[in-house]
Amino acid sequence: MARTLAVLTFDFQGYTNVFVDSLPDPEHIEVFRRYESFYRLLVRATDPDPGRRFASAREMADQLTGVLREVVALQTGRPRPALSTLFGPEPRVVDTELFADDGQDPSLLGARPLGRGATAPVPAQRPPGPLALPLPAIATLEGGATALALPVPLVDPDDPNAGFLAGLLAADPAEVSAALRTAPVDSVELRLRRVRAQLELSQEHDAGVALTGLEAAYSDDWRIVWYRGLHALATGDRETAALSFDAVYDAFPGEPAPKLALGVCAEVLGQLDNAAEYYRLVWATDPSFVSAAFGLARVLLCSGDRAGAVRALESVPESSIHYTAARVAAVRARLRQRAPYDALLGDLAASAAQVERLGEFGLDAVRRERLRTEVLGSALDWVLSGSSGAPPGHNRPPLLGSSLDERGLRFGLERSYRVLARLAQRGEERIELVERANRFRPRTWV
């Protein structure tokens, strides 16, 4: 059946002699290069070893349908999500804080030192040639948390402990570990759940020992390979993690979960192009995997593609609980570490509109005001550097309620910092915020 599908899909020359028991190299077949999942499906379905092929027509049909959804999503630009028969949804999304806190003032040119010796800020001048500015500080992925946020294989309903394990889904890891000792019988699912509990409790050594025993007893169970990948990712063995998840991708090419895991592995291995492709593939097919959007934005930023990162973040739908975090990250992706002599007016206006809209979505006051300071600070540096790209004349629309000139932006920054000072919980933080307000306020007689 798979070879017939191959013949119908591309000009399969030599399928009766040269490739009688194999497939052409993907480099020579465009459809294989474009749709890796389709190639992997045919490879498994035509494996010379019958034991390595799909176990049943139903299993192959499920994976073929998954590959078809992926292909249609890529061709039409419309997602084609579906419930998996092998994996549950993402348990959580741990990487929504895209940017590390750099602790810097939002305006590098506008802050004045306090006191009589204060000097005027020096406007930034456009350099004569291209200048490589440092990228914004991206938050680092934490291996253990990221591994445990990947989709979890579904429990086999025929396992003798299936009913027992169903009652432990939302329990605390320590409580789960204690409860597992009371299971009525031993089983594969029980032992796999124990491995996950050990990883959640940072007992990586015990989890590794348990996995070694499972591999010896059940060498053909793909779930053990998946958990080996989770364990390797949590312990920093990135190459083993990638090999494990790649094996699961080979076995189930229609599933988004192994592609998401491979995206994480490629990212931590520094293979940004590969990571972007895996993240893009998952996000284009199924927008319920929100970590793929954040992952795609993260690797695009690291590659210098700000516009692509913003598009990825702004594609997170309003229905997602991570919509607010995505839009906050999009504002920062537009403006952080931008050269003030660039034509920033469009990005400043778009960022200001996002901040105002986020207020309607319930963004808390502290985060809203901090985001306002970032937008206003970037605008102040842009104005002090000559307002590159601004239209002629003085009819500039206001930005977050402040006129788009030095005096108006300074008043806006001062106002936001005084609001933050009132909201501060600690005295030291309140004093620091008041001092920042004073550093940015325009010069007045009082």
UniProtKB/TrEMBL annotation:
Which residues are the signal sequence here? none
Q: What is this protein called?
A: Protein kinase G tetratricopeptide repeat containing domain-containing protein
Do you know which Gene3D superfamilies this protein is assigned to?
Tetratricopeptide repeat domain
**Highest taxon of the lineage:** Bacteria
Q: Which InterPro entries match?
A: PknG_TPR, TPR-like_helical_dom_sf
Give the matching Pfam families: PknG_TPR
Q: Which source organism does the UniProt entry give?
A: Streptomyces antimycoticus
Residue ranges of domain Protein kinase G tetratricopeptide repeat containing in the record:
140-444
